[in-house]
Design goal:
about 290 residues; single chain; globular; alpha/beta; Aminopeptidase; 8 strands; 6-stranded mixed β-sheet; 2 domains
Length: about 290
Amino acid sequence: MDIKFKSKKKYKLKKRPKILVKSIIIFLILINMNCFKFLKQLLNDTGDHYLENLYINRKKSVKNKISMSSFNEVESKKYDDVFKVENKTQAVPLVYLYNTHQGEKYLISPSQTITPSISYASNYLKEKLSKNNIYSIVENRSVEDILVTNGWNYASSYKASRIYIEDISKSYPSIKYFIDIHRDSGSHKASSLCINDICYAKILFLIGTENNNYIINENFSNKISNKVNEKVNGLSKGILRKGGRGVNGIYNQDFSGRTILIEVGGENNSIDEVYRTIDILSDAITEVIKEDM
């Protein structure tokens, strides 16, 4: 009996350290799990507060009258990664492409499900210029948002796009050329040039005569127009001067001597016809910019 008792006691004494170790391990696991949940909740709460703060800042920005200073850090930084090239270095943008009338659209084809807008032309021009080592920014912020926020009518669109011009000029001092892309209206015949059954969208340069840069911008536009016609005769309709009573006459061209407005095609042109024209236009712009630098 004594032997059995002793062996049993020894058995129990032997087992206790293992049970104690297991208990400690389980205890530590439970603590870690609770810490993990706490940290996870803390991170989630922090993220929520961060997003909430972004929303509050954005809401305050919209509530106030939009001005150059109203664009917060998040919005301005979205352009920072636009200019990455293959060698991972940052290219210097020279051209700002924007659309004062962002609602302008081209003809939708049977194969398309979305009506192509004027922004298609700007983004394609950016792509073509980039291949020529001319880097640009395309404006994706809404002109309509500024009109609505400030209670401005459609006629104030140039005043709205001016806010973006000045903002982007401060953010990217390297930008020297400001190109406002529009499209014309009228029949397909009036806005197209067809050669051997291949059609292009004609272009037209609009120059406001009610500003001090009138002659400088006209000369610069003429250089591009002439280059285009050297490549495809008749593709550019040349210069249309606008000024006087009932006309804008400025079109933001008072901002610099390199702020121009180009109408690419019309409402009855397909996006393919527009792209063919931009293939020509991009080379012409590249040549003129390189001569101007």
